[in-house]
Amino acid sequence: MTFQELKPKVTEIILKANLSRDEKLLNICQLLSDSITYYNWVGFYFANHDTKTLHLGPYVGAETDHTIIPFGKGICGQVAESNTNFVVPDVAAQDNYIACSFTVKSEIVVPLFVDGKNIGQIDIDSHVIDPFTEEDERFLEFVCVEIAKLY
Length: 151
Ligand code: SME
Fold this sequence. Notes:
The protein has helices at residues 3-15, 21-35, 74-82, 134-148, and strands spanning 41-48, 53-60, 68-70, 86-88, 106-114, 117-126. It contains 4 helices and 6 strands; from the N terminus they run H-H-E-E-E-H-E-E-E-H.
């Protein structure tokens, strides 16, 4: 499925009246992981700005030990501070990376802004080296803008 075809499906989930916010987030994880072959783990982390930690939210994929990540640590923790997308074509080439599984070869993290504040992020792991393009970034930015409407 193309990103263009996926966009209305994301919006459809956002607008569903009978689902909680977490259920919507989980459905979006499922949709993305089912639709894009190289999206092998799709999940959300949410920031606690008092403790400067990220907390695992809804996700689809292998269970992870990394349920709490301090700001600055790993790809996710860096995005909590940089407020910008982080595309890692090859995780083996990254110093500040938190490994979840040896099957993960690349990662993309896109921050989620609500009223200009970075409240969390969508995190995607892939089993393929260097699969992410600017199209992924634009699509995931769209997903984050849609999700921001739930806050
Ligand atoms: N690899 C991430 C940790 C989270 S997992 O991918 C689920 C990182 O370096 O921040």
